[in-house]
Design brief:
The complex is a heterodimer.
Chain A: E1 4-7, E2 10-13, E3 19-25, E4 31-38, E5 42-51, E6 54-57, E7 65-66, E8 76-78, E9 87-94, E10 104-105, E11 109-113
Parallel strand pairs in A: 2-11
Antiparallel strand pairs in A: 1-3, 3-8, 4-5, 4-9, 5-6, 7-8, 9-10, 9-11
Chain B: E1 3-5, E2 10-14, E3 19-21, E4 24-26, E5 32-38, E6 44-50, E7 56-58, E8 64-68, E9 73-78, E10 87-94, E11 102-104, E12 108-113
Parallel strand pairs in B: 2-12
Antiparallel strand pairs in B: 1-4, 3-9, 5-6, 5-10, 7-8, 8-9, 10-11, 10-12
Classes of the chains: A mainly beta, B mainly beta.
Chain lengths: 114, 114
């Protein structure tokens, strides 16, 4: 089954403790993205990647890192999480650019930073 | 910069009634427009998209949307709502010139009364 898999689904952590949210897709998609969803703000793009070893900042990249060492994986790294990073995070992938290729989303990771 | 506004945060309709969700966008060129639906605890699923051509586009689950350039709008409609349509709906615009950048509106939560 074609899918985008995120782990974990729920994560509670404390300020400053490094964490990684994993994302994997099995559709051989070139494009992968990370979004955060906050009430009333919709989804905002954090980082995206157009191919292996190619990443770029989205609208809200501060406090986040990503890597794309393999085509299927696109982990999101919070080196020193803060409470304002409490949010619902989505990974997405697409065959081509978002302008002409629909995004496939994972089921989300709800992160709470205390 | 591109932006999307969904003026209605919440909408409640009775089952069987018609539905229209509003979306206004700001973008300097011909936009690529999307509607996504998010069911509770799930990622987003593409309902329909507009790239060019016929301004009335049909999507899945009986939804349609009409692109009106003069009003910078891309409203989503359904003639008869089912209880299973209760979800959050997001309008989005993509820039072909900005990689994988997809800008979302704040979302409209739809509730369906029996």
């Amino acid at each position: 089954e074609a899918q985008v898999t995120q782990n974990p689904r729920y994560l509670i952590t404390v300020t400053g403790k490094k964490l990684t949210v994993t994302c994997s897709q099995n559709m051989n998609h070139e494009y992968m993205s990370w979004y955060r969803q906050d009430p009333g703000l919709g989804l905002r793009q954090i980082y995206y990647s157009m191919n292996v070893e190619v990443t770029d900042k989205g609208d809200v990249p501060e406090g986040y890192k990503v890597s794309r060492k393999e085509k299927r994986n696109f982990p999101l790294i919070l080196e020193s999480p803060s409470p304002n990073q409490t949010s619902l995070y989505f990974c997405a992938s697409s065959f081509g650019q978002a302008a002409n290729s629909p995004l496939h989303f994972g089921n989300g990771t709800r992160l709470t930073v205390t | 910069a591109q932006s999307v506004t969904q003026p209605d945060i919440h909408i409640t309709v009775s089952e069987g009634a018609s539905l229209e969700l509003r979306c206004n966008y700001s973008y300097g060129a011909t936009p690529y427009l999307f509607w996504y639906v998010q069911s509770p605890g799930q990622g987003l699923q593409l309902l329909l998209k507009y790239f060019s051509g016929d301004t009335l586009v049909q999507g899945i689950k009986g939804f349609e949307a009409e692109f009106k350039r003069s009003q910078s709008s891309f409203n989503l409609r359904k003639p008869s709502v089912h209880w299973s349509d209760a979800a959050e709906y997001f309008c989005a615009v993509a820039s072909f010139n900005a990689g994988n950048m997809l800008t979302f509106g704040g979302g409209t939560r739809l509730m369906v009364k029996p």
